[in-house]
Amino acid sequence: EVSRDDPETAFCTLANREELNPEEDSIHHCLYQFTRNETLTETNKLLCDVCTQRHCGPKNNIKSEKKYVYTNAKKQMLVSLAPPILTLHLKRFQHAGFNLQKVNRHIKFPEVIDLAPFCTAKCKNVPEGNTKVLYSLYGVVEHSGTMRSGHYTAYVKMRAMNNHLSDLVLRGQSQALETEPVKGQWFHISDTHVQPVSVSKVLSSQAYLLFYERLL
Fold first, then answer.
1. DSSP string of 125-175, one letter each residue
2. CA angle, corner 189, sides to 107 and 109, nearest 5?
3. 3-state secondary structure of 47
4. Structural domains in the chain?
């Protein structure tokens, strides 16, 4: 979605992202980097319709690409609609020459995450005045092995039904949301083997996919 807001407020977020100081190898650092402000210059300049019309005139029939006017610009990707379910997919591969190599290092992730520093200040389904958009972890997918072969397992939290989440899914809003992690028991699932595990075991896993449900 292209934002045409005032340039002074277009890059504002619900919470001050500059106070985050995210730790390296953490999901906060990943989100911070993914939503960072970028400057588009040189070959990445933006085609500006307003500048083109100002330079060539609105009635000109522009056939040659040379008549288009490109300008420096700023770009930032932010969340404009906080989803009921937040799914985070970690890029666990990197280029090593002409080959792909799996990234096995641990990425830290919390049981409760605040998405506000990564949401636009005018996030559509966040009540005015709210400076937090909280999510509770309920599922993790982990991959062991290499880029060529391996095994997928999952951690899932068995919990009571989240009525607030149902309100968000069906009506787009909820009147009363929680701020604490949803209570429940974690289980590790590997094919037909299912066993209870502690939350510390879950948080120490090498996550490939993270699933969070909306709290606030």
1. TS-TT----EEEEEEEEEEEE-SS-EEEEEEEEEE---HHHHHHHHHS--S
2. 20
3. strand
4. 79-214 (3.90.70.10)
Q: What is the mean pLDDT of each run of 10 residues along the chain (216 residues)?
A: 64 87 92 91 84 68 64 89 93 80 90 94 87 94 86 93 68 63 92 96 95 90
Cβ atoms 51, 71 nearer than 8 A: yes
| 3-state DSSP helix/strand/coil % of the chain, to nearest 5 | 20, 35, 45
Say which residue the tokens 């985070």 belong to. Answer: 88
Distance CA 205, CA 61 (A): 59
Residue 155, pLDDT score: 98
The pair of three-digit structure tokens given for residue 192, joined into one six-digit string: 């037909």
Distance CA 143, CA 93 (A): 12
Neighbouring residues of 168: CB distance < 8 A, sequence distance ≥ 6: 84, 125, 174, 214
pLDDT in the model for residue 118: 95
Contact of 216 with 178, CB cutoff 8 Å: yes
Burial 163-182, CB ≥16 within 10 A → b, else e: ebbebbeeeeebeebbeebb
Give the model's pLDDT for residue 30: 93
- Evaluate the CA torsion angle 211, 137, 32, 134 in order and state its sign: positive
